[in-house]
Amino acid sequence: MLEFYFYTLLAGIVALLFAFWGAYSTLKLPEGNEKMKEISDAIRLGSQAYLSRQLKTMAIFGIILAVVFVFMPNGAQLDVAFITGAVTSYLAAYLGMNVAVRANVRSAKAAEKGMGSAFSAAVFAGSVTGFACVGLGLIGLSLLLMYLTISNVAILIGFGFGASLISLFARVGGGIYTKAADVGADLVGKTELNLPEDDPRNPAVIADNVGDNVGDCAGMAADVYESYVVTLVAALLITTSLANPTLAQYKYPLYVAGLGVISSIISMFFMKVGRRGNPTAAFYKGIISAVVVAAILDLAVTMYMGLSMSYFVAVLAGLVLAILLFWITDYYTGSGSKPVVKVATAAKGGAGTNVIMGLAVGLRSTWAPVLCVAAVILISYSVLGIYGIGIAAAGMLSLTATILTIDSFGPITDNAGGIAEMAGLPHGIRKITDTLDGVGNTTKATTKGFAIGGAALSATALFVAFANAVGLKALDALNPTVTVGIFIGALLPFIFSSFLMEAVGHSANMMVEEVRRQVKTIKGLLTGKAKPDYARAVDIATINALKSLVVPELIAILTPIVLGIALGTEALGGLLVGMIPASFVLALFMANAGATMDNAKKYVEAGNFGGKGSDTHKAAVVGDTLGDPLKDTAGPALNSMIKVVSTLSILLAPVFIMAHVIL
Question: Would you say 439 and 622 are in contact if contact means Cβ atoms under 8 Å apart?
């Protein structure tokens, strides 16, 4: 039995060592001149200050829940699992972000040597986030399995819930922060003052760059880490529910995850560009190589273990889904793609037509991912039953290290471009950083597609685990309590998202007023003779983000508790049935609509339809202003919400059953 855990633990250690190597390779690179270091330090300190404040808020919720879990069956073990999940999730996000905020200036400096050097600097820095998440996830899960043994594997749901709780805080708080700063900077800087992107005269520019790190780096890391570990936990829980589970069935999803570490390491060496290379093509080579290597290794281990090819078919379905979601999102949101040009063209008619077209593209973009996920569910179920769904999810999420590497590239190059602009670096360097920033903007969108699809698949596996935990064989849609649950479940993502959008709107309005105030009161600001008060803008974004995340957190936590106690487990099953598909489709719509409008703005800024400062540009900026909280706040946060609700439903299932009997 020890051998079973040893291989998974070893894979986690290898992943963590690779993350440390990525950090070492990044930190030994030169930082640039004093002006570049000063700007980078401001971004780093602002990012660290936000995470430190956020930690205090998370600790309050965590302590309360830990105390509650003590009074449940196996309370001590449950608390150990819960705290392990929360701590490893926070560490993964914190480690990745702390390297990212040091890599931005180094990537900008590396641009002096050409595109290839700047690209490699950002990629290897991004790998820290990817491999830290996978390493900490596998190590934490392996140690808990050694501590609990397979006979008590149900306690692992506490591990998943701990990761989910941190993810919800990181996604919600980071998303509100980053978009409040971004929207505030754009509305005044671009539309009122005609300032370039990342102009140092804009008081909100440092807060905007901080937001890239706490939202797109730390938030995304916690989000995908949660999907990764929750998927593995769900696969193990489903295995436990089988009639006569074998040891091989417990081993298989963990071996798939471990082999994903090897395939992701190999993929890193395919992500390279020359001086005139194509960064987008390099990323496609990386993800395709990861899938091919993973498929070969998974086939080999399936044959070695003497399992039927049905296991490999389920894994392969998940791997193929990862590529499909990446490609579909790239088609709808990629720089210069047909849908993006369509939205940019609509901006010639004004902000209204730009927004209408952007929303139309976002709505239409949902059909292909939904059909792909549905096909994978059908294929995996047809070959291995409910166990196959968990295996397919494990196969898809085995690519986590590669996907997070590509995602973290985005905020690093975004910040590198900002530093190059603010430090007044030569045009040739800024052209390279701007190109990488544009590519990074697309990769952030494509990896969000992966994260949303992964969340849907893992949530489906969690629903199966929930049904097994409460003994549900089927749900009767004619039962009014089930129907009520379905309606509330479908409603939940809309109410949840409304609070996030409102929070961004409120915080952005305060940022707009602050930028206007500084422009009016600080003499010489627009001529470059005086510096803005960057710290004040950072403080506004931080305080409002932390205040605004409390209500959405409570909605996600209290809804399943109240419904489970009041109406029982069948109503809660209905809640999950309504919530998972509604959240999946709504998240896709918001993320893709926002990314398309963002790249439509960049398409205009590249010199099309009048370029920067034109009426078309101003209309596109308005569309991007709407799209920002859709793609970076409300949309991605739904990933975390559905898994918090799902894991909490499984965790408290015994309480709901007991309460319903008493009532």
Answer: no
